[in-house]
């Protein structure tokens, strides 16, 4: 039996999940190196939390060394070249160091050169690499090629689900996730199912899926991963106390789980323990300097009245993004979001229009809407902000952006509703913007 996201083919009827004990027995067994973060490397607060099942850096390093040695002995082994390429993609994900991507590209193409026909592992690996570099259309096409050769190859459906999600192909993404669930119920599929459910406003069902996955987990890294995902749902629902407990449980299971450490910092900031939040952000960044962590710490310092410390994080963010670009990563979304709030709104619009041309994803719609608002183009901004809500995602930041755009257009009733929605979903959604949402809601209510 499988987890069914939707029953009818056109995805219009939303039905409860069907999760069984049989499905979950052994579901969180190790699934190899194909479980990279859905949709590529984290580049926003939404995406960053969905890291896949952790792979110990030590064991990965040993695997890379072993495969390098095998290839010195047998340089024409296409299968080992494909596996090594996948390992390099995973290495980049674990370390947030994109310099492994060119090595992955070389290894995977070497595999294809050696075995150009029906090389499913190389095609799937190149698809995972394309997702990691935010080349989502290419990733979709590579996954489609692999599936055409081997329709039961579950790893290709993971790549396809990520690519379709990031391209804004809602129905196609759900279909790919369901195909993945049908073929390989486990960490990779439950992660993507929970994300799909959350994006459609079905957060209770997303949490249910993750809780049942946790019940079937035995490995400490799997347990930490599931607890972290659940804690993120709690935090996004405005329950930082519950989230903090979940992050701490995740770290008790796996002290090296960096996403849980950053999550702990977010919850501490929401609960007023700003010293603890800064400490934990610093520790997380020292391990894995993800752009999201740098941006969040910068904004926390800014909210605390520490402009020099904030600017230092923003400078590091710029350096990380330049390094990513030098290694083939296209990430106009992250820099567009940064420029809209902390830099040049015109540059933000330029970057985000380019991203919108590549993919009509709700994250990009919201970011471009906000950049346009910051530039003063509110009518176009509102149209995009409303597009961003079409999946039903209960996202406090989206609601805040919509409310501020409506307020700028004099649509006070709509602005009041959306600002209230943002604060209802998560009154701590951002250390800079949540207080503004509260103040603006009071101002609108007092003037009406």
Structural features, described:
The protein has 448 residues and is mostly helical. The chain has a domain at 26-209: Tetratricopeptide repeat domain (Serine Threonine Protein Phosphatase 5, Tetratricopeptide repeat). The chain has 24 helices and no strands. Helix 11 (203-215) runs antiparallel to helix 12 (220-236) and helix 23 (412-425) crosses helix 24 (433-447). The longest helix is centred in the last third of the chain and has 20 residues, at 307-326.
Task: Please provide a brief summary of the model.
It is built from 24 helices and no strands.
Keyphrases for this structure?
globular, 24 helices, mainly alpha, Serine Threonine Protein Phosphatase 5, Tetratricopeptide repeat, 448 residues
Q: Summarize model confidence as the mean pLDDT.
A: 89
User: Number of helix segments?
Assistant: 24
Q: What portion of residues is helical?
A: over 70%
The N- and C-terminal alpha carbons lie at a distance of 54 Å
Looking at the overall shape, the CATH architecture of the domain at 26-209 is Alpha Horseshoe
Helix-strand topology string: HHHHHHHHHHHHHHHHHHHHHHHH
- Principal-axis shape equals globular
The CATH topology of the domain at 26-209: Serine Threonine Protein Phosphatase 5, Tetratricopeptide repeat
SS elements, strand count: 0
CATH superfamily of the domain at 26-209: Tetratricopeptide repeat domain
Q: How much strand? A: under 5%
CATH class of the domain at 26-209: Mainly Alpha
| Sheet of most strands | none
Radius of gyration: 21 Å
Structural class: mainly alpha
Q: Indicate the low-confidence ranges by residue numbers.
A: 8-53
